[in-house]
Amino acid sequence: MENFEIPKTVNPDIAIERKNASFNSEEMSIWLYGSKEKLERKRMIEKEACEIVGDRLDVEFASYEDVATMSVQQAIAANKKLRTLQERYNPGGSDIYPALMGNEAINALIPSGSPLTVHILMFTRALKEQGTDEQYEKFGRRADNNEIIGTFAQTELGHGTYLRGLEARADYDRKTEEFILNTPTLTSYKWWPGGLGHVCNYCIFVAQTYIDSEAKGMGMFVVQIRDEQTHVPLPGVHVGEIGKKMGLNGVNNGFLGLKNYRVPRMNMLMRHQQVMADGSFVKSPVSQVSYFPMVFVRCMVARKNSNYLAQAATIVTRYSVIRRQSPIEEDQPEPKILEHFTQQMKVIPEIVTAVVYRLAAQNLQNMYNETAEAVYRKDFSRLPELHALACILKVATSYDSTYGIERLRQGCGGHGYLTAGNLGNLFAWAAPACTYEGENSVLYLQVGKILMKTWSQVLAGKPLMPTMAYITECSKMSKFPQWNGSWQCLLQAIQYACVGSIRVAFQSYSARLKSGQSQTVAVSSTGLELSKAAELHGRVYVAGNFYNQVLHGADKAQRSLQFQKVLENMLELHLIQTFFRHLGDILRFIPLPENEISALRTRLEVVLKKLRPDAVALTDGFDYSDTVLSSALGCYDGNVYERLFDAALKHPLNKKPVPDFFAAHLKPFMQENAAKAKQSKL
Asked: Residue 331 — left, alpha, or beta (φ > 0 → left; ψ -120 to 50 → alpha)?
């Protein structure tokens, strides 16, 4: 078996799955990507980008320094490739570059993560959205053209989500019209920004602004940290890498300390707030504007993490129709493991969850784009709604994708633990989103506080934001309507439980305020109730969005009957799964008899059986190439075992029959023990 080839044919066990599917997976791909033209363009760009993808296992066997070098090379290659494609297909546009720098194909090209991601997605965006036109001309155009490379330095060693606690200072000096930047303590060092360690030569430095020792709030400052020609750190700058992480070790996350570092007044980004030459301060009309770069990243998390889950679901679904194990009936052959109900429960709900979150993320991105245009025009009316929605979707997608990928990995048994399966890497890509750009439990509290304000508006009879209008409707119900188990009934039950949780949290919060607790102490003390209300609000939005897309989507008339039926089966599964996930919350406010709950359990089993024949076709609909998946377990042709063996043979230890450690360590150890044993017999 030392010399073998991976078969050129498709494994019949997966071929029959595609043949027996009830719908055409191509229709699903077109639906997910928006149109046939968009799908074809996506495939064309992905194909060209993947031409320069190497063997992912090369990174696994490289040293830490080599990983850093490879990631820089790969990020530059991806950058050049997408810019070339942009000029070829839409000169002057931005729909390919920089928009697709976070695309799945680019992730495959840069398997350890890109040190340029924050430069492209945050640094350049912040210069345009937070800087004046003049500042954009000075810094933004050079950044867009990659003449300078920057990052967004906000998080500190001792502070993260709580931005008002940041310790970095920017003191204004009227005499010189400069800001003096300092990280006065160890905990005020900037910590985590991607690319900061050794790649970037500029950053946006986020600090507390002081004028005459009076705090004016958070400001953003463009800071050059390295010489543009030599890349040597400038005087007053202490910069480096924070060290090896659980994954994404090519991102070059760094630390930054500044000591009496002076920048001109005009290096403060001043589109929304200004410090004038005489030291007078013009406050931003809306405080949330300063958080807008973080809002964008949270939108990105929702999109990317839904994709990570979809990739994992594709890999494990394909593996589950190749792997055979444990006869269901005695004296029968071993079935595909996807025939086992327990495996179906591990795999199929994650497929559906990935679809549901993908649609929610698309809707959120559309809202962000509309709001960004409005903010640019000084219209901040939709910012609070976007902030709340971005927070809750970031939390939901990061939590559920991380847990979902791990459940899926376990569904592959021991093989899921192999690097060649790529599930570990997907987990490492998904998991950090639970803590970066806002730790999830803190974001729950932020949304919980918004819901408290919302309930006050309900009590005052005021209109609510569109995504919260259901709260007013449910608040008017003296009891839940007659239960009939329909999809509308299930969705309304989740809404009703959420509003009940909001009401309970508000009562608890109000009682604590009346007892004399401050607002911040009351929020902390009510944290569990607030978090539960926030979580349920996220469930309401996601389930409601999917419900509307399936039953009332603008493209419904163009769908085939077969595909519409599959979508309805997915809706059935998602609503029932959400019901059982929050059964305790629902029963707290809706008295349901056991027979109704048992009926839903039966429906769950039935819909899993209905979706089982379509599982492979559903994951094919995600349209991930083998290069993107980079998985021996999830290859399109289903030749799992051959690819696993091929990956094993590539391991450096298998390059020669006897490793160096045998002569250096193992042989002397065994010979020493043999000599001692012989001596003891004398």
From this structure: left
